[in-house]
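pipeline/complex-builder :: batch 7 item 3
reading input block
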Amino acid sequence: MKNQPIMQATERHLKNHSGIGQVIRNTLTMAYRGLLKIKRTPEQLFDVTLQPIIFTLMFTYIFGGAISGNVQNYLPVIIPGILVQTVITTSIVTGVQLREDMDKGVFDRFKSLPIARIAPLAGALLADTIRYTIASTLTFTMGYIMGYRPEGGLGNVILAGLIVIACAWAISWIFAFFGVISRNATSVQGISMIVLFPLTFLSNAFVPADTLPKVLQWFVKFNPISHLVTAVRELTNAGTVGWDLIISLVGAAVIVAIFAPITVRAYMRRT
Amino acid sequence: MSNEYRKIVEKADWAVEASGLVKTFGDNHAVDGVDLQVPTGSIYGVLGPNGAGKTTTIRMLATLLRPDAGSAKIFGYDVAKDPQIVRQLIGVTGQYASVDEALSATENLVIFSRLLGLSRQESKRKAEELLEEFGLTEAAKRPLKNFSGGMRRRLDLAASLIAQPPLIFLDEPTTGLDPRTRNQMWDTIRRLVKSGSTVLLTTQYLQEADELADRIAVIDHGRVVAEGTVDELKGSIGTSSLHLSIQHTQDMQDARRIVEQVLKVQSAASPEGGKITAPMAHADRVTDLLIALREQGIQLAELSVQKPTLDEVFLTITGEGVKEDKQEKEGIA
């Protein structure tokens, strides 16, 4: 060891808060860590690879004839629906994995470092957007193979994908919160599924809302997932931007504004 | 003395200043009013059995846990009010290696360096430097899954040293290490202090505290039960101690009674049986004791007078010996 003298406490320049620059730098470093982990254990990407392929095939061929007369007509309806459903479901994995990660000793070190408190969480969630990207790409690719030709054009399809990824990132804060407060990874999965199942299925993702009973129609109308699905449909199928897109983005921002602070707080309280 | 000046003096004098720290988990008073004062530039040992509250204390000092009561200052900065400043002054090496299992040693160090504000290149250089220092260069690219316990511990310590913090917490740094690796770890800790760091380490091993620490706090059931230099602690239980083995274990009670009568102290019986230890202030007394034992017809197997070891200090202070006494007496009654 080089006997480089240690700078004593009194000679140091110290500050008690992390600026926005540090928040971003720390978060990006933590995201880099997340990506390295994915690179090391690529098998954890199985779910995001298989789910879009299987679900897209399955739902299109099961519901296609019944709902739209044939598969071809159903594709513009189902592809945006399944895209939203798949990507948002994937964000549960984020919560589960964060929970597992937090049980490891390395999170103790993150806590004892003078870094932005939000960084370990935000970084992990940011790294997981790679999953959402894979899921989105595969869903659109499957759709294309089955004959889906979105009228909105490639640019709007990519834009729609990015919007879904952004919203999934926002929603993943909810599951991150469950991850921080629950006892173990299995219970995160449990709670998250209970929340997400009704939300995705009681929306306009798979069936037109007007075929449903009145009460459900009312629920579907207010369901944020429906707005996101509609926004994606408008973008991909017509290339238009409507209210639903704005509502979706505002909703996503509200989720982050609420859940990011309480998640960080709960995280700091954990022993 | 102006307030401002006093503040600076305090900051320079004490690396750690804790008073009345309390942490309760449910019914368990893990830490029950701990006071600590660690002088800057020293190695300070916190010694105690498993579950005494050592780790909880360290976690509170390192801002990882919020104390339920009491306060702690690191170089004059309050852990509750200025946690982010405190974090810039400390390095923490936990009982369980706090490094990333899925990544390689280099990747771990680079990520911690980046988080501490080093540039990409500086981080790489720092990682290489530390890996070399800790003899991990060959294993730099391997995932940690294949690391031995000793390698993990060394990497963990290396990670704590990236920012060259003036205060380093080591929570049981050598638990579970083989003797050779343990000695390496001790050397590293000594070198750290030479370069100006203050080290606060916890240990269950008296030998380790004896070897390394300038001052020791003995902690038991969440409280500091003794504090001082190694010599002071040893002195506190008498200058030397008597070790006595008797030939017939049935004479045990009689022998202990005589020892206690003659030396006017509490004796302790070792669990193996047949051995009695007692603190002894004057070597002269041995003569009286031997005569008394001969009169009672107790035959000795072995007798020696030894300087006290920290083990005895520890057992005396934490009352382990006394507890044994009680059990024995109850057993007889």
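note: DSSP finds 13 helices and 14 strands in chain B.
queue -> next item
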